[in-house]
Amino acid sequence: MQLPKGFIEKYTQLLKDEAPAFFQALNEEPTRGFRVNPLKSSSQPTEHATNDPVSYCQFGYYGTVSGKTIDHQSGLIYSQEPSAMYVGEVAHPKPGDRVLDLCAAPGGKTTHLASYMNQEGLLVSNEINRKRAGILAENVERFGLQNTIMTNESPDSLEKHFPAFFDVVVVDAPCSGEGMFRKDHEAVQYWTPEYPLSCANRQKKILKSALAMLKPGGRLIYSTCTFAPEEDEQNMAWLLQEYADLQLLPIKKYPGMADGRPEWADGNSELTKALRIFPHQMRGEGHFIAQLQKQITDVKTKELKPQKSNVNKLQRQDWHKVADQLLSITIEDSRLLAFGEHLYAMPTDLPELSKLQVIRPGVNLGMFKKNRFEPALPLALAFQAKDFQEPVPITEEQWVDYVHGDTFSISDVTNGWHALTCHELTVGFGKVVNGVVKNFYPKKLRFSINK
Ligand SMILES: C[S@@+](CC[C@H](N)C(=O)[O-])C[C@H]1O[C@@H](n2cnc3c(N)ncnc32)[C@H](O)[C@@H]1O
User: For a substitution probing ligand 1, which of 35, 125, 128, 157 has the most ligand atoms within 8 Å of its CB?
Assistant: First the structure.
């Protein structure tokens, strides 16, 4: 990889003796990894080795992911570069918290944050770019999140809907991506000496909105995948100067993780509390993480009106005709929200959504068709086999047919909708008609595997 001349000059000056090792590390192979989803019962991957754990992330392992596996299709694993796993670990929300992931696509941090929340509380996963928001939705649905809504807003418009609302806000900022150079060679082409400063200005605007949405006493986690001091220490120094009610909190540093560099900003020694990951010092890509807390005040924050269910009697009947036969758990009627022709189960602590650009207001339960209801894949993936009546275990061969969109035969199963399971994980729905499983796996997700 040919590094830009300006980049080499900049980091030779900043890193001094360390610079040769740093540049050499940028020419080595990137580190790959994945997280295991704790929301999918206690299942462990069967197609991916878990003998090389990431010491600083309870769900993380080193290794490469294959998308054409039951582990991946069922949402049991999520491919994520190991350094990026430390962002979620630092944020570590509690079940019941209100959490915002402000720059969320493709979903690495959202799925990780949810892993600590036990499907409780509220996670708002926001992505400004519509196309990327679609990819985010696919990943969140595969991971099976029940407490998450996805929005497609700019930070300054989202800010109007959630004043001082969240316990934890994560800003995994759009950045110059220097830390991803060896993983994404395109990032090298974008780089100019001026690029980090233009990214830093954009990040300041995002941070202002993030702080407006943070509760007093709440935590803001800021991360980038760049080495650029303009976007890292200098932005944190700017925050501390601008907001007297903010303080940096320490972050536990595992071997190889480095302190933030005050001398690369305004010299404020508090900046050592931030964290840097350099690829020449540990196994992972470049990253910067800072954790800040907003001072607690006795000013009362405004409670937001809750979102009410809007389904009519007919829609409720159509849903129950399927749900009462399919599910062994109850989704309360108060959580049902019709959204176009789709039906969703909202998270319990959801404020009114009016005027908000919502991509998914909860779990997509399915679609109203003429006089009937058809369950959707996200409903199957959001729950475990035990949450369904008569789940149908399928073989690996039948799973290959299923993800390809083919029908297959099955014996001794009653007619009607069933959750299909493979390796004890839910993988989707099939409608059984006289021993044949009709395939409802979404066309755009289908793939083939050579038998
Ligand atoms: C580093 S990526 C986020 C990665 C994601 N958190 C994850 O872990 O998978 C930054 C995201 O910020 C979005 N973005 C770009 N400009 C933005 C802006 N002005 N405000 C908010 N988000 C923005 C990008 O579309 C991109 O999806």
Answer: 128
Residue 227's closest CA among 264, 184, 255? 264
Q: Using one digit for the tens of pLDDT, what is the confidence trace for 283-331?
A: 999 999 999 999 998 777 788 999 999 999 999 999 999 999 999 999 9
Q: Pick the catalytic residue: 57, 199, 225, 422?
A: 225
Nearest residue (CA) to ligand 1, atom 27 = 105
Q: Do the beta carbons of residue 180 and residue 225 sit within 8 Å?
A: yes
Its pTM stands at 0.98
Contact criterion met (CB below 8 Å) for 390 and 414 = yes
Q: What is the dihedral of CA 279, 78, 141, 95, to 10 degrees?
A: -80
* ipTM of the shown complex: 0.99
Q: For the domain 5-294, what is the CATH code?
A: 3.40.50.150
d(CA 151, CA 126) in angstroms, rounded, equals 5
Output the CA 127–ligand 1 centroid distance in Å.
Answer: 6
Q: Distance between terminal CA atoms of the chain?
A: 37
Residue-range domain boundaries for the chain: 5-294
- Ligand 1 pocket: which of 103, 153, 202, 231 to mutate (most atoms <8 Å of CB)? 103
Residue type, 77: I
Is residue 233 within 8 A of residue 275, CB to CB? The reply is no
